[in-house]
User: Fold this.
Amino acid sequence: MNSLSLFNGVGGVSGLSPVSGLQGNGSSQDASIANLLNDIAKLIDGSGSGQGAGTSGAAAGNGNAMSQFLSDLAAMLSDPEGTGAQNSAGSQGSGAPLGGNNNFTTMPGNAAPASGAGNGTSMPVSTSTPSSANSASSSGAAPQGLSTAPQTQALSPAQSKQAADAYVSNLQKDFGLTKDQAAGIVANLWHESGGMNSGINQGGKIGAPGSNMADDNANGYDIAQWGGTRKQGLIDYARQHNLDPSSEAANYGYLKQELQTSQAGAIAAVKGTNSAQAATQAFCNAFEQPSDPQMASRLGYLNQILA
Assistant:
């Protein structure tokens, strides 16, 4: 709408009388009407200093400016001689011109643009933040007490005990096991890995996994001596979580994944026991399934874990 339409109902603002309905004589009245019409024109045409807001609080500012406009109009209608007398609280002082341009500086089309906005276009403000869950997943955050660093040398006895304690604690928390039940699982892992070494190849070499993926008694890898498709599963898990496959975090994470899915029966077997020794045997039979259990060795490591 342009300013010419003002003469047919004050810019189409609902509830306002047409300009042609105003009465009064004299240069003061003429000047007042002219000032008022200029302000209405700027209001409707969107002229003035800047366009478009889109910030919080704009609605309140618009409401205040409209109130001022209505106040100016009412004052002019009640003062057709243009004497400038004002009756409302907070209005302009005596003698001030009616309908001054400053009355509409916060109306739509005149507010200062929000950052990044211009030409009357309101820019939405994003309040989203990166999902912390997604960040932790992509960074491969370590289980409590377990390292994300690759293993490059065999653990000392003290380091083996520290890793075993961390495994016990995490297994209790993640699967609702008793300490004896969790210790039975870890006793098997200690036996398989030569002392909780997460980066051990079958035969004793520490470091990256060997390239042979055969599922036999010569190419196992890591804390549980995974072979074949399960060894490849560990490598894939580590890659997906930005971890080194020899790290404690990758080993525990993949173990947990298996125990929640394809090897859930092993957890059920362990939960059905009421002693650490029984838990050790149950996990060996359900999860490791070795050709030679060497149970005496596994139970010996169990005593070290519980000590």
